[in-house]
From TrEMBL:
Species in which this protein is naturally found: Amycolatopsis dendrobii
UniProt entry keywords in alphabetical sequence: Membrane, Transmembrane, Transmembrane helix
Domain of life according to the entry: Bacteria
Protein's recorded name: Uncharacterized protein
Transmembrane regions listed in the UniProt entry: 37-62, 134-153
Amino acid sequence: MTPRTAAAAPFAVLGLGCAIAGGLASAVIAPHPTPHGAWAVAYLVLVGGIAQLGLGIGQALLAPEPPASRLVFAQIAAWNLGNAAVLGGTLSDTTPLADIGGALLAVGLARLVLGVRGDSPDGRRRWVRHGFQALVVLLLVSIPAGLVLARIGPA
């Protein structure tokens, strides 16, 4: 396993696990769907799954040097604990827990931006790296919006 593959692997495994969990949750709630249940399914698949997969692979490919395992662990911990807190807080109507989750997600995203900063020695992929960072910042900005929507609840 190359260092870049090793850096992406935890994101890929956990991201695919979240996407599968979302699919299983969808099957469970299908007979009696609720707004919170449908939201949780989408959140697991899109944020816990697809976003995590893209963030981890993007960082592994775009960082000037393969990310250190310590950094990857901190990012994985922040992202997954944050997602768990957002899900738990939203589903239990415990707003402070969702807020803590949002803060953990912000920490994880900030660490991802830092993980790809700098240029590769030959200047390759600079525009792709900037695009990745812009998408991470967009996700970062969307966290407060999501927390406000969680407070408002389904219409």
